[in-house]
Amino acid sequence: xxxxxxxxxxxxxxxxxxxxxxxxxxxxxxxxxxxxxxxxxxxxxxxxxxxxxxxxxxxxxxxxxxxxxxxxxxxxxxxxxxxxxxxxxxxxxxxxxxxxxxxxxxxxxxxxxxxxxxxxxxxxxxxxxxxxxxxxxxxxxxxxxxxxxxxxxxxxxxxxxxxxxxxxxxxxxxxxxxx
Length: 179
Description:
Blueprint: H1 2-11, H2 16-19, E1 26-27, E2 32-35, E3 44-47, H3 50-62, H4 80-94, H5 105-121, H6 126-137, H7 142-146, H8 154-158
Antiparallel strand pairs: 1-2, 2-3
Helix pairs in contact: 1-3, 1-5, 5-6
């Protein structure tokens, strides 16, 4: 579980993407992950952080798998329902608040917003960097990436020096139910 959920969190993967990874899709020499036929039927390659790579190496050395990087005792991939149940179980064990409904997909949302916040804090050019985030996350439409701007704290946006209204025609506003 620690490797699976950290992979979602640290790499911004959709919850089903790590579950479909074949053993050879996770390059433990280089930290490269090959995602086959994502939601948009596109292949893409992403990189793990050094910390996640080390954790993935430890996992691979301790767990014997035949086909999938994460597989059940029958040699099959885990399904999304199993992942959701495990996520909720781990969340409950953590003692963290459940004021809102929490889902594995929230790890992906968190990755995107943390990345944007980090770039803005570092003074990076948002207009240039956002296309990298879009490709990394496997978005087929630019508006899918810009959606995450709506999830940033208002105070952070106000202090970014960017006129966010210029993007208002590209991405939809988030309702309170979506937060």
